[in-house]
Every structure is written in structure tokens, then in C-alpha cells.
Amino acid sequence: MRAWVRSRRGPACSALELATGFPTPAVPTGSSPDVLIRVSHVSLQFNTEMLMKTLPSFSFISPWIPEIELSGEVVAAGEGAPAEVRDPGTHVVAFQKVPGPMIMGHGVLAEYVRLPSSQVARIDATVNMASASGINCSGSAALKMVRTAGVREGHTVLVNGASGSVGSVLVQLCKLRGAKVVGVASGGNEAMVRDLGVDEFIDYHKHNPLPAYLAHQYGDKPFDFVLDCVGTQALFVNSPAYLKTEGAVVNIGVLEGIGVTARNMLFNSWLPTWLGGVPRRYIMFSTPPARDDTVYLVHLIEEGRVRIPVDSVFDMEDAILAYERIATKRARGKVVVKVRSD
């Protein structure tokens, strides 16, 4: 089979090579709970290239394959797999666990993958496979943000990065819960974000600096929650001007870099107000995919209540171009690689 493999440390353009003749995973047999999947599409993650630039390349580690979420069809499954993902030809979405297997390079940007059935969920064959490939990560992250904040009917929330892969799902989940949603994105993405259901739209280019505009526009009607998919420290620092006292900023973004974000998280969470701390709650957490979340989101998608926006789809041979697209930070939804050639 073909698979993209990291040969050295560095950006995707220099670190990845398309390997041919790569060993296809073994077919599960006996009581194995594993599922062998023919991959249809793989959704790329923004932080994959950061890992490729950061993690050293060790010769004693098996070839390092990137990415963690996919859509595809069942080729074979062991008797220990649930009946709904056992029949050949069944459409599924699946994910690789993080951080362990992903750090070790057991990714899914390949023509076939073998995964435990606990990481695989059936999806209706009518669902677009490019869109389906982005359910696990973006969907799970958005769902965790909504649940952590406790968004419900009557709340007003700000979604920063509303046109991104997580923000676009987050807007829809907040609306399903009956909240009023104010979405922040660039003006060029206004039509897309409004189509997702936001009640109000803010162009951060037009209203810069954003915190000053929020204070002026929403100071007398503050938000219940600020849901930040970008990672803008100024949004939290200035939040008392537009966020309710009992509210919180929930952040999953690392726009300012891992090191700076880690430092900010420490100070934002623990610095007391008498030492200059911000008198508002700050919440940040990891958002690894989970099968229960995937099953819940699959039902919403099959019912037409949520959709996973796709920015662009690249052929398997053009995966490097896909990484270049996601690196622009301007993608509207998921950037996807089409693995299957038919």
C-alpha cells in the first residue's frame, strides 16, 4: 500500500515522503477486536506539522505515519469487534489514540489501517466521506467545550474562530442547545459563518483590537461564556469588560505557540487577583477524540442537524499541498486528503 512517512524532523514539505510498497496491516482473525479499514479520506490536524518539526526522528522507531482521524470502509474485522462494524463494506469513521500511538507515528495517512473497534464507529453510507473524516477531532473538541461550559438555552456565547474546523461545529452545537451565538472570524468568511446559524457576526479585521470593540458593544450585555478556538490571550485578559462575573473563557487554541500558551494557562488559572490575576475563570484542556462523542455526533450528522464543513480536498499525491493550506490558518473547516483513488 501507499503511506506518507516522516523521514526526518522538519516541516511537511521536507519531512514527508510518499512510500509505496508499504506493508499492509494484517487481517484481524479469531477473537481479535480490531478492524481493518480501507481508508477513504483523512482530515489533517493543524498541530501535526508542529509535531513533525519538534519530535526527533529515531531509527529504532517504526516508520512515522502522521494523522489521527479518517473515514473509510471495513475490509475485515475480528470476532471481538461489535457487529455493526464487522461486515466488509460498512462505512465507518475512526481515530488513532493520542498522545501515545500518535507520538510514536502510528498514524492513519495510509491506504489501509488497523485499529481497535473501540476507536471505530459506523456511519450511514449516504454521508459524504470527506466531511465524515473530520467528525472525530473537531467534533469531540467542540462537544467538550459546550459540555464544560454548560451552554444552554438563554445563554449568550462568543465563539472566537467561528469559521475554523472546531469553531464551525461549536457554533452549531451551541445553537442546538438554544444559545445566542456571536461568531468572530475574518470578513471573507462571514457568509459561511452566518450560514452555520450565528445570530451576530464580528469581523476581527474590521474591529481591531477585538477586546476594545467587545467592551464597547457588549459591555452592558456581557457574555455568559467566551469559547476561544484560536488562543488569544488578550481575549481573556480583557474579559471582565464583556464577560459575566460567573462566566468563563474556555480556550483550546494555541495561536501564540505551545510555550507561551502553557505559561499563559498557568498564570490565567492560578494567579490571584491581588497579584494582577484576571477576575474571571479560565479553562483549558486537551481534547482527544472519544468513541462515545463520535457516536453522538454521527447521529446528529445523519439527522442533518450538524454538518462538518470542508475547506478543501487534496489527492493522496498532493498531501504536502494540503499541509501548506492548513498552515495558512485561513482554512474554512477541514482540510482533507482523499486517499482512495476510485
TrEMBL record:
* InterPro entries from the UniProt entry: ADH-like_N, ER, GroES-like_sf, Lipid_raft_assoc_Zn_ADH, NAD(P)-bd_dom_sf
State the organism named in the record: Talaromyces proteolyticus
- Look up the domain of life of the source: Eukaryota
Which residues belong to any copy of the Enoyl reductase (ER) domain?
Answer: 12-337
Protein name per Swiss-Prot or TrEMBL: Enoyl reductase (ER) domain-containing protein
State any single GO MF term.
oxidoreductase activity
